[in-house]
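Supplementary Note 3. Input sequence used for the single-chain structure prediction.
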Amino acid sequence: MSQYEARIRAFLDENFPPADAGVVPATDASLLESGVIDSMGVLLLVTWLEQDFGFVVDDDEVLPDNLDSIAAIDGFIARKCVEMEAAG
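The predicted structure, written as discrete structure tokens, is reproduced below.
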């Protein structure tokens, strides 16, 4: 399990419970294409990221490359945390 995966999964389970109990999305599965989240869900995800991790998600960062799978979100959080540490 990656560094932030457990926290991401807990957020998804709490805010977007699966229609079929026990169904867990694959780490690299598209959350939008699989119906886990929708466009409004992306806004909730961005708000959670900003509040829980303390960084700002810029408009140009709201992209599938950053937010469409658990693996992408995990990598995005890691990059943003490194940026925050470097900025001091």
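The first helix runs from residue 5 to 15. The helical segments are 5-15, 39-53, 64-67, 70-87.
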